[in-house]
Amino acid sequence: MRTSNMRLSHRLVLVAFFAAVITGGWLTWEIDAVDPPAASPTDKAQEDLSRIEYPSQKGMRWHPHFVLPNETLESLYGNDWVWVARFNRVDRRHVYPGMTIKEPDRMEDIRGYTPLPKEYEPAREHDKYILVDKTEQWIGAYEHGKLKFSMPAATGKPGTETPTGMFRIDARHLTHTSSLYKIDGEEGDQYPMDNALRFYIDEKNVGYWIHARDLPGRPASHGCIGLFDEEMQQRVFDSPRHPVLLDSQKLYEWAVPDSDYGDDYGEAEEIEGGPVVEVRGDLPRYR
Fold first, then answer.
1. Rg for the chain (alpha carbons), in Å?
2. 200 touches 29 (CB < 8 A)
3. What is the pLDDT of residues 47-68, one digit of tens each?
4. Which among 143, 170, 161 is positioned nearest to 280, based on CA atoms?
């Protein structure tokens, strides 16, 4: 398959093509950064995801779980670890001893969990429509008003929030990297932003993208919208060993398929008639 071959070549094309693109001046500056596993900046002790309030979880029964040494999502929840990760909007790399996560009282209550409506009237007239709910930290893909699939997201944090409003996907870049942020400080490589979909350029010529990134369980970016992609994390951080969560790939392949926009060779390209993107809501409350 084209996609599999392209992803295997990421290591070779990321640096070379990034340099060519910047030299050519096609891309705007974009904003994003990675949050390494660590304590919350608003909680100097340890990360406590049970303090984040999502409206959709108000009527659900769950309790805080303090992660002990040698505990992982897999050891705690078996095959249901995926649903617990989604429920907490967190990736496996950011679950570590000493933090607290939300654990459902009954696992069956969160299987298939999504906070977004199954039908959304504003999307009814659109073949493809992307809804981003900042309050829920969630993104949904709609076809003619019906929810096709949805997934957790990490939007901009306080002070660098993702802009709200109506936008449209106007560029795609399978092997995008950040022009502003590096993985390990000044000496590291540019932070990867695989499966990037640009939806907005501000007055300072800064581009905002939906793309693969780390999900620490809360709003975390400088304005972009990040989605699970453990294949990217495995390539860059060598963790997790067996990638499972590939949400950014799923959205990218649905939003800008070759059948609609031509063969995708991993190069940055502007597109016309991309899906509408609606960004709504305020950031969730942190108790």
1. 18
2. no
3. 899 999 999 999 999 999 999 9
4. 161
Instruction: Spell 96-119 as b/e; 16+ CB within 10 A means b.
Output: beebbbbbbeeeeebeebbbbbee
CA distance 240 to 83: 17
Query: Which pLDDT tens digit goes with each residue over 116-163?
Result: 999 999 999 999 999 999 999 999 999 999 999 999 999 999 999 999
pLDDT at 151: 98
**Whole-number pLDDT of residue 114:** 98
Residues 193 and 64 sit within 8 Å (Cβ to Cβ)? no
Angle at 73 between CA 72 and CA 77, to 5 degrees: 120
Separation of alpha carbons 214 and 244, rounded Å: 14
Q: Which residue has the tokens 């990490």?
A: 154
Residue 166 pLDDT > 90? yes
End-to-end alpha carbon distance in the chain: 46
| Residue extents of the structural domains in the chain | 2-37+114-286, 49-109
CATH fold of 2-37+114-286 reads L,D-transpeptidase catalytic domain-like (2.40.440)
Mean pLDDT rounded to a whole number for the chain? 86
Three-class secondary structure of residue 93 per DSSP? helix
Which pTM was predicted? 0.85
Helix, strand, or coil here: 24?
A: helix
Task: Name the residue with tokens 């249901």.
Answer: 80
Q: How far is CA 47 from CA 54, 70, 103, 123, 214, in A?
A: 17, 17, 15, 36, 15
Least confident of 27-36, 83-92, 102-111, 247-256: 27-36
